[in-house]
Design goal:
The complex is a heterodimer. Chain A is mainly α. Chain A has helices spanning about 5-15, 20-25, 35-60, 65-70, 75-85, 90-105, 105-115, 115-130, 135-140, 145-180, 185-235, 240-255, 260-270, 280-295, 300, 310-345, 365-410, 420-445, 450-475, 480-500, 500-505, 525-540, 545-550, 555-560. Chain B is elongated, with a radius of gyration of 21 Å. Chain B has one domain (about 15-100). The chains are: A mainly alpha, B mainly alpha. Chain A: Belongs to the sodium:solute symporter (SSF) (TC 2.A.21) family.
Chain lengths: ~575, ~100
C-alpha cells in the first residue's frame, strides 16, 4: 500500500468539497483494488464506440467553426445532455453520494449549490451569448470593445479556470481509476490524457459533444437504476428508507464506547437535518456566490452555447441541462441513503477497521455491487471513467480555443488568420495542453489540491462573469473598465484563495487558524471588487476609445435582444 | 450591424416592448431564485433547528421537502422562463426582424 494519506488528499481534491471540515468527512484513504476485468471490458466498449464517433466526426471537422462549435448544428436537447455531461463530474457522483452517506442532509445542501447557477445563466446570459458570440465567450465580452486587451484578459481567465479544473480532474482520474480498475496511477493519467487528445484533436466539438452525450445517458441510466432499486426495497416509501438509515446510524453511534442511548439516537437523527457544513453566514454566502455565478462564467460551459443554431435552441439547452442535473442530484441523495442502509451494514464492504473498503468515496460503487451484482459494478466503474473523459475533453477544447481563437487569430493576427491556420494552432494547443495535463497530473499526485476546483469556480465568478455581465448589460462599460475590473477580480480571487485555510493551512502547512483570510470562498469579496472596479474605471474613462465603446452599445443590444446579424449554423 | 439599422430597430415599438418585458421577466425570476437560494442558506446559517424539526411522528424532517423543493423550484423557474421566451418573446422578435429587414 502506497502512502494512503497523500493519495487520499489527491482524491479528496478531485472530489472537491471546497469547504473545510466537510472535505475531511469525504477524504478516506484507499487501497489499490484487484484488476477489475468486467469494468475494463465495459470501458473498452465505451472507448471503441467513442473512437468510431470520433472517426465520423473527423470527416465533418474541416473548418475552425466545425472544430469549435460542431458547425452550430447541435439541437437544444442534445446540447442540454452534453452540458449535463460536461457538468456532472465523477466528483459529483461519487463525492456527493459519499457526503450523503457520511453526513446525510449536508450532502444535499452541497449539491443544491451546484444547481442554482443554471437559472441565472438562463435568464441573464444564455440567449445573449448565442446572439453575440461565435466561438468563445471572449467574442461576447469583446463585442464592442478594443479587441486586444479584452481577449488577453479573457484568455487568461479561461486558461486559469481550465488549468485548475483540468489538474484536479487528472489527479482525481488517476486516484479513482487506480481504485476502481486496479491500474497504476500513471497509466490511468496517460490513458485519460491520450484519449482526450484523440477526441479533441480529430473530432473537435462534434466528437466532444457526443462523448458528453453518451456519458450523460450512461451516468443518468446507472444512477436511476441504483436509486430505483433502493426505493423498490423500501416499497417506494421515503419514510421507510429514512427511518432505516436513521436506525443504522443510531446503531453505529451506539456501538462506540461511552455513548448513551439518547446521544446515539440524536446522532442517528442528525443525518436528517443540517450539520456542520454551513458555519458562518459570510462563508455560506460567499461559497454560494462562487457556485452560483461561477457556473455562468465557466468557459467550457459558455462555449457550448455556440454549438446550437439559434437563441431558441440555446434556451432549450439550459432547460434540459437544468432538468437533468437537478434530477441527477435528487438521485445522488437517494443513492447516499441507500449506501447507509445497504453498504454500511454489509460486512463484505467493510474493512477490519470498520471503515469502507477503498474509502468513503466508494459508497456509490459498493452500492452498485449490492443492488446489481458484479456486472453492474463493472458498468458503474466504466461510467466513472467515461465521465472523467467527457469532462476533460470539454476543458481541453475550451483551453485550445482561447489560445487559437482569442490569442492567435485575434490578438496576434489581428483577426486576419484564415480558418486553416487557426485550426492548426488549436490542434497544436490541444497536444500541448494534453501533455501538460498529464505531466501536472503526475506531478500533483501527492499534493493536497483540494482548493483547485473551488478556485476555478471563484475565478469564473469573479473575473469572467462580471466582465461578461457588464459588457452585455451596462451601456457605460468601457474597455478600460472591463479590463481593470476583470483583472482585479482575477487577482483578488486567486490571492484570497491562497490566503484562505484550504491553501494556507491544508496545502502550505501553516498551523490551523493562522490563515489571513478566514472564509471558505473569496467570491463575496472578489466579485464586489471586480464590479466596483469595472464601474468606477468606466465612469472615469473619458478616452476616445470609451466613446467608441459606449456608441457600440446600442447595435450590440439590438443584436443581443433580437438575434439580427447573429452567426448562423454552417451548412452541412 | 450598421448603426442606422440598429437605430431603426431600437425605435420599433415592438422592440421596446420585447426589451422591457423580457428584462422585467428575467430579473423578476432572477430575484426569486436569489431569494429562495440565499433564504435557504441563511436559514441554515442562522437556525439549523427549523430544518431539523420532525414533521410528524416519523423521522422525516422539514428539511427534506424544503431541500427537494429548492431543486424542483430551480428546474420549474427555468422552465417557466424558457416556455415564455420560446413562444411569446420569439414571436415578437420575429416580428421585429420582418419589420427591420423588409
Amino acid at each position: 500500500m502506497k502512502t494512503p494519506i497523500l493519495r487520499a488528499g489527491a482524491l479528496a481534491a478531485f472530489l472537491a468539497a471546497p469547504v473545510q471540515g466537510f472535505a475531511a468527512d469525504v477524504i478516506e484513504a484507499g487501497e489499490k483494488q484487484a484488476t477489475n476485468w468486467t469494468a475494463i471490458v465495459m470501458f473498452a466498449g465505451f472507448v471503441i464506440l467513442t473512437l468510431f464517433i470520433t472517426k465520423w466526426a473527423a470527416a465533418k471537422t474541416k473548418s475552425a467553426s466545425d472544430f469549435y462549435t460542431a458547425g452550430g448544428g447541435i439541437t437544444g436537447f442534445q446540447n442540454g445532455l452534453a452540458i449535463a455531461g460536461d457538468y456532472m463530474s465523477a466528483a459529483s457522483f461519487l463525492g456527493i453520494s459519499a457526503a450523503v452517506m457520511v453526513s446525510g442532509y449536508d450532502g444535499l445542501i452541497y449539491s443544491i449549490g451546484f444547481l442554482v447557477g443554471w437559472p441565472i445563466l438562463t435568464f441573464l446570459m444564455a440567449e445573449r451569448l448565442r446572439n453575440l458570440g461565435k466561438f468563445t465567450f471572449a467574442d461576447v465580452a469583446a463585442f464592442r470593445f478594443a479587441q486586444t486587451p479584452i481577449r488577453v484578459f479573457a484568455a487568461s481567465g479561461t486558461l486559469i479556470v481550465v488549468a485548475f479544473y483540468l489538474i484536479a480532474q487528472m489527479v482525481g482520474a488517476g486516484s479513482l481509476i487506480e481504485l476502481l480498475f486496479g491500474l497504476d496511477y500513471w497509466i490511468a493519467v496517460v490513458v485519460v490524457g491520450v484519449l482526450m487528445m484523440v477526441y479533441v484533436l480529430f473530432g473537435g466539438m462534434t466528437a466532444t459533444t457526443w462523448v458528453q452525450i453518451i456519458k450523460a445517458c450512461l451516468l443518468l441510466a446507472g444512477a436511476t437504476f441504483m436509486a430505483f432499486m433502493v426505493m423498490y426495497h423500501y416499497g417506494f416509501s421515503p419514510e421507510a428508507m429514512f427511518a432505516d438509515a436513521v436506525r443504522v446510524k443510531t446503531d453505529l453511534a451506539a456501538a462506540k464506547p461511552d455513548t448513551t442511548p439518547e446521544a446515539a439516537a440524536a446522532a442517528g437523527q442528525a443525518i436528517m437535518g443540517p450539520g456542520t457544513f454551513i458555519k458562518d453566514p459570510i462563508s455560506a454566502i460567499s461559497f454560494g456566490m462562487a457556485l452560483m455565478f461561477g457556473t455562468a462564467g465557466l468557459p467550457h460551459i459558455l462555449m457550448r452555447f455556440f454549438t446550437v443554431p439559434s437563441a431558441k435552441e440555446a434556451r432549450k439547452s439550459v432547460m434540459w441541462a437544468t432538468t437533468w442535473i437537478g434530477y441527477f442530484y435528487l438521485l445522488t441523495f437517494i443513492i447516499g441513503f441507500g449506501a447507509i442502509t445497504f453498504v454500511l451494514t454489509n460486512p463484505g464492504f467493510l474493512g477490519a477497521d470498520g471503515l469502507l473498503v477503498g474509502g468513503n468515496n466508494m459508497a456509490a460503487v459498493h452500492l452498485a455491487k449490492a443492488v446489481g451484482g458484479n456486472v453492474f459494478l463493472g458498468f458503474i466503474s466504466a461510467v466513472a471513467f467515461a465521465t472523467i473523459l467527457a469532462v476533460v475533453a470539454g476543458l481541453t477544447l475550451s483551453g485550445a480555443s482561447a489560445v487559437s481563437h482569442d490569442l492567435y487569430a485575434t490578438v496576434i493576427k489581428g483577426g486576419k488568420a484564415d480558418s486553416a491556420s487557426e485550426l492548426r494552432v488549436s490542434r497544436i494547443t490541444t497536444i500541448c495542453l494534453g501533455i501538460v495535463a498529464v505531466i501536472l497530473g503526475i506531478a500533483f499526485q501527492k499534493q493536497n489540491i483540494a482548493f483547485m476546483v473551488s478556485l476555478a469556480f471563484a475565478v469564473a465568478a469573479s473575473a469572467n462573469f462580471p466582465v461578461l455581465f457588464m459588457s452585455v448589460l451596462w451601456k457605460d462599460c468601457t474597455t478600460k473598465g472591463a479590463v481593470v475590473g476583470g483583472f482585479l477580480g482575477l487577482i483578488s480571487s486567486v490571492v484570497l484563495t491562497v490566503l484562505s485555510p484550504s491553501v494556507w493551512e491544508a496545502t502550505l502547512g501553516y498551523p490551523k487558524g493562522s490563515a489571513p483570510f478566514p472564509y471558505t470562498s473569496p467570491a463575496l469579496f472578489s466579485m464586489v471588487l471586480a464590479f466596483l472596479g469595472i464601474w468606477i474605471v468606466s465612469k472615469m474613462d473619458n478616452s476616445a476609445r470609451a466613446r467608441i465603446d459606449r456608441a457600440g452599445f446600442l447595435p450590440q443590444q439590438v443584436r443581443s435582444e433580437t438575434g439580427i446579424g447573429a452567426s448562423e449554423a454552417s451548412a452541412h | 450591424m450598421e448603426a442606422s439599422l440598429a437605430e431603426r430597430i431600437a425605435a420599433d415599438p415592438n422592440y421596446q416592448k420585447l426589451k422591457s418585458e423580457r428584462s422585467r421577466f428575467g430579473w423578476t425570476l432572477t430575484i426569486a431564485m436569489l431569494v429562495v437560494y440565499y433564504g435557504f442558506v441563511l436559514l441554515i446559517a442562522f437556525d439549523k433547528d427549523v430544518l431539523a424539526a420532525r414533521m410528524g411522528s416519523g423521522v422525516m424532517t422539514w428539511g427534506i421537502p424544503i431541500g427537494f423543493g429548492v431543486i424542483i423550484f430551480t428546474i420549474l423557474v427555468t422552465g417557466i422562463y424558457v416556455r415564455r421566451a420560446n413562444s411569446e418573446f420569439d414571436e415578437l422578435s420575429e416580428k421585429i426582424k420582418r419589420e427591420a429587414l423588409k
